[in-house]
Structure formats: C-alpha cells, structure tokens
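#struct-pred
JK: can someone run the complex with pyrazine-2-carboxylic acid? inputs below
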Amino acid sequence: MVTDRRGFLKSTMVGALAATAAAGVTRAHAQGALKASPKGTPVKPGPRDVLLVVDVQNDFIPGGALAVKEGDAIVPLVNQLGAGFEHVILTQDWHTPGHVSFASSHPGKKPFETTTLAYGTQVLWPDHCVQGTPGADLHKDLKIPHAELIIRKGYRKQMDSYSAFFEADGKTTTGLAGYVKDRGFRQVYLVGLATDFCVCWSALDARKVGLGASVIEDACRGIDTNGSLGKAWDQMAKAGVKRIRSADIAV
Ligand code: VGL
Ligand code: ZN
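RT: done, structure tokens with the ligand placed:
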C-alpha cells in the first residue's frame, strides 16, 4: 500500500501538481510525518471520531523495561494529532506485580518466549508497567490535557489484555466498547505503542464492535518479535482496518 502511494506520487509529479505535492511532503517532513496523502484532502476529525492513544508509557520508551525502538519519536506527533481531535482516549497497560504475562512468573522461561495459558498462546514479556510504578506512568512529554478518559487494562493477574476493548480471552470487557457506544463515537483513530500488539489488537476489536478503525502508521512504533509486525498489518488489513499516515489527518 505504501509502495502504491509512492508510485502514485511519482506518477503525478508534473506541473502545478508537482509543486503542490512537494509542498505537502515538505510540510509533512517538518512535522515528523513521512508522506502526504495521495488522495489529496486530509480528513478533518469530527464529533463522532475519537483518537485512541495506546500505551505511551515509560516502560515502552527507550530506557524502559520493554522498550520499543523509537517509541519516544512518536510523542510530538501524537501531541499534534491529539490537538486536532475533539475527543481523545488514552490507555495504560496496568499489570499487577507477578503478572501472568511476565516471563519472571514462569520458571525457566525467558522474555519473548511463549507459553500456553487457558486463553491461548501468551508471549512472555520482561516485567513492565507494574501498577503505580514510574514505568507505568504516561510519558512526561505526552501533552493531551483535554483527553476525556484513561482506560487501564491488563490488571487481572491471570490474564493479559493487549486490546483496549477485550482482554486476552476475547470475552472479558474493559468497558470501552460500552463507553464508546454511549458517547456516540463511530470511528477510532489509533496511535501509540506497540503497533503489533496493543495497537493492533485494539484496532481489530474496534472492528469487532462495529467501529471504523484507522491506524496512523507514523504515529506508532512496533516491537516486531518473531515476525509479529508483518502479521499484525496482514490481520488488520483483512479486518478492514485502514492504514493511514498523519498527513491524511487535517490537524
Ligand atoms: C504491549 C506487550 C506487552 C503493548 C503491552 O502496549 O503493545 N506489548 N504489554
Ligand atoms: Zn503488558
């Protein structure tokens, strides 16, 4: 898809159009975005759109317990996008000490290995985002004061929750689907960490509860363990999750 867009941009680089496209690309670069939308007009978020900012927490930032490469690089862009949305929801990974998703809770297991639990395969992680610890705090530079809700997840000791909507059994609800429905939101735009886990699972579940879902690619970063990032994009594409860039949003 990205390749197609590049092809499209190249093929339209003529005359006045070239000037317009070039200006768009320069502007996007200055903002840390990668490419303007080939479809032209960026979309302005409306009252039924909500930005879901996933797990922008210290433990997922370089230096943190489960650092995502360049995790901090998205923060200015996430702030900028946040300012363009009337409605913003933040999520926080929020585990108990000794959580079942921690490798340290499984003798003989190392981080990034897997184990089988009642609800399926669980990737085992370094201890991270333990409730009330600095690693679980939102990144200090994240500035979206008008965010309306912070939803915490993964607080049941025996069950993980990548998704902001349903925990790892696919049934236990976090309450977010009900909240979003009550508020009348129809379309969720996702940014944050990590693309291939909490962002992906949240986007898939958004589709399951009947919402439109768009992942803003350049405002996310992935972990990519055992091919997880490629798999995540495939799954999202199949589920009708749109893969867009920040330049596609008018903020
Ligand atoms: C996440 C692994 C474990 C995430 C959370 O936020 O993507 N990944 N816990
Ligand atoms: Zn976690």
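RT: quick notes.
Residues 55, 60, 93, 125, 162, 193-194, 197-198 surround pyrazine-2-carboxylic acid (ligand 1) (CB under 6 Å).
Residues 1-37 have pLDDT under 50 and may be disordered.
JK: thanks, will look after standup
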